């Protein structure tokens, strides 16, 4: 009986440990030591990163996205002749390349997928174009069904990110300092507004995050080192708040990068490249305004991208120039970060749970 009890306890413990481990895929730049997309096992109880493997050897997979069922993965391949790739996720976590199509513009830098999992949108930074691709049932990609060119005779576009939100599509254009708004009509997207709010100066809107109801939109500005808080109203959109991402005593150069809301919407996080920190904001869930409460060092250099794990207990930062991924514990009550450890990896630039 004792032996049976011990075996049962061992089996239960083993299953519990396995349940705590979830895959983390990492996109990288491959002009150095990196070879493509990597995969780790992330422990959602301890925050440890283990069992690193090369999931696929491929060029400059600088941004990644999952299908809703997590059976397929998509990446941009950032190069002069830009590409978009789709992959099947094998049982062992490695990736099988399914399709590789043109991104329809130089320098693809961002990719995201809609809720139904039947369309992806790609932002081409150098070209200033945005491309929409239908997804086949087997996870492979069709050629682009729509391509938007935001360049004008007087202004150069730098499309930096785009996201679907039900029937809406929002595009952040760093070059033209605008957030474009498209709406779907008869399975195609039509431009609703070339700029949902007026942005003063040259802030350089880069990435943005939407709350669950898509009532509030938070834009991180690369050049302005700031976050613009925008509210959706019956008449359109209006800016309701504006906050610096930098510590009040920091005087060096800086470029902002990524932004994410916590799972419960109570906190907002943004990354600073230069100050090399994560700015932490407490969010008023009723009126949408922000109050900065922390600037935490990323224990690395150039946090181009970061991610919150699915449990909401950890934040991971991809530090491109220092070749490491830093892991932080999130305090459930305050939202503040505590550094745990860092794991080496060449040129990490995108983290995907």
Automatic annotation (TrEMBL):
Biological processes annotated in GO: glucose metabolic process
Highest taxon listed in the record's lineage: Bacteria
Xref: Pfam families: Lactonase
Family to which this protein belongs: Belongs to the cycloisomerase 2 family.
InterPro entries: Cycloisomerase_2, Haem_d1_sf, Lactonase_7-beta_prop, WD40/YVTN_repeat-like_dom_sf
GO cellular component terms, A-Z: cytosol
Keyword Cell cycle: no
Signal sequence annotation: 1-19
UniProt keyword list: Carbohydrate metabolism, Glucose metabolism, Signal
SUPFAM superfamilies referenced in this protein's UniProt entry, alphabetically: C-terminal (heme d1) domain of cytochrome cd1-nitrite reductase (SSF51004)
Species assigned in the record: Flavivirga rizhaonensis
Lineage of the species this protein comes from: Bacteria, Pseudomonadati, Bacteroidota, Flavobacteriia, Flavobacteriales
A molecular-function term among this protein's GO annotations: 6-phosphogluconolactonase activity
Protein name: Lactonase family protein
Keyword Ribonucleoprotein: no
């Amino acid at each position: 009986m004792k032996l049976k009890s011990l075996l049962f306890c061992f089996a239960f413990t083993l299953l519990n440990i396995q349940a705590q481990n979830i895959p983390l895929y990492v996109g990288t730049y491959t002009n150095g030591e990196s070879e493509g997309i990597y995969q780790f096992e992330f422990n959602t109880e301890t925050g440890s990163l283990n069992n690193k493997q090369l999931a696929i050897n491929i060029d400059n997979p600088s941004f990644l996205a999952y299908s809703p069922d997590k059976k397929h993965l998509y990446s941009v391949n950032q190069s002069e002749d830009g590409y978009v790739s789709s992959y099947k996720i094998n049982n062992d976590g490695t990736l099988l390349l399914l399709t590789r199509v043109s991104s329809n513009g130089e320098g693809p830098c961002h990719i995201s997928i809609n809720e139904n999992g039947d369309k992806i949108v790609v932002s081409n930074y150098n070209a200033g174009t945005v491309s929409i691709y239908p997804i086949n049932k087997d996870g492979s990609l069709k050629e682009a069904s729509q391509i938007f060119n935001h360049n004008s005779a007087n202004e150069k576009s730098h499309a930096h990110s785009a996201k679907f939100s039900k029937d809406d599509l929002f595009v952040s254009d760093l070059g033209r300092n605008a957030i474009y708004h498209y709406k779907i009509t008869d399975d195609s997207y039509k431009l609703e507004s070339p700029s949902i709010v007026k942005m003063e100066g040259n802030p350089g809107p880069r990435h943005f995050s939407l709350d669950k109801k898509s009532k509030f939109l938070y834009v991180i500005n690369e050049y302005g080192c700031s976050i613009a808080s925008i509210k959706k109203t019956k008449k359109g959109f209006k800016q309701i708040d504006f906050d610096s991402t930098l510590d009040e005593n920091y005087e060096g150069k800086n470029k902002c990068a990524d932004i994410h809301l916590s799972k419960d919407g109570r906190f907002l996080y943004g990354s600073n490249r230069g100050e090399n920190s994560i700015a932490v904001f407490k969010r008023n869930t009723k009126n949408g305004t922000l109050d900065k409460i922390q600037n935490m060092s990323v224990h690395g250099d150039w946090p181009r991208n970061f991610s919150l794990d699915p449990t909401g207990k950890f934040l991971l930062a991809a530090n491109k120039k220092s070749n490491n991924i830093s892991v932080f514990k999130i305090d459930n009550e305050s939202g503040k970060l505590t550094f745990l450890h860092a794991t080496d990896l060449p040129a990490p630039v995108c983290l995907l749970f």
